[in-house]
Amino acid sequence: MKSAQKTAAPTEDSPVLVIDIGGTHIKFGYSRAGLPDGYRRLFSTDALRDSDPVGALADMIDEVSTDTGMRPSTIVVAVPGFIDTDEDRVLHAANVMSLNGRRLATELGQLTGSTVLLERDAVLMLTGEVLSGAARHADHVLGIFFGTGIGAAFMDDGKPFRGAGWALEIGRTPFFGDSTMPEDAPPDCLEAYASGRALQRIADRYGVAIDRIFCQPGSNAPLAHELDRFVRYQAIAVGIAVAMVSPCTILLGGGVVNMDGYPREKLRTLVEKYVPAAETRRMTDLRWCEHGWLAVLHGAPAVVAEHRGRSSRRLVAANR
Question: What is the per-residue pLDDT across 285-295, written as a single tens digit (0 to 9) for each?
């Protein structure tokens, strides 16, 4: 790991390094002048589990900086879990437990010499899709992302709903499903039944490759039954969130719904069953994410702008 290096003061056109920490991969890209550039790089998330996670991230940033010749003045990190109200400490990241309790923004900033901004991954993805993706020109948008875990966010009047700091961690909703969970699974919650990790357990039970699990022939009736139940649990997750926030638009994404053979129309039909459409007489405006994980690159400029706005307001208040 290199020692912290001084960087140029950020400008509106300065490239922003964006890091999306997923349950399987850590994805790197840049946002320049408000738009993604062409650079992409992936690292295994296991590197954060097997060593000091902040030091490992700093090493990855060094490699990316060497690749591109750019030492970023600003880094936006998409965190898969709960972030404290100080926007610094990771409260709980279920799929990257080594981050729990770490003051990630401060520690990573000290190692890299950059300004580090944290945002929940679901908020960052939804922001990107609202600004320039499938949900552009929409308001009151609920986004649910089925990956290794389950993330969700809600945009109201162009701003993410946060509650008292974080909100809509729908994967942690208490839930009791039909199947028995192994001892190392999270407690009874939706994520234990409707996430990519739950899908991996199904694949392991039937000895099939997870990337082909939705392409299996229909002759395996037990597997088909489990997959039907899995998709139904996902629809229930959507229905619960819709009942809570009353969105005008539902946006669905994440690695699971983008898998080969995934039954999107079946999910759409089930969602229409579980949302309160009959009672409200509101049509379900359900859309699919356009950018995939690259949505975080489209959303990062909004995080930087929000941070600069808060810093300016604090400076004005201090000078009064």
Answer: 999 999 999 99
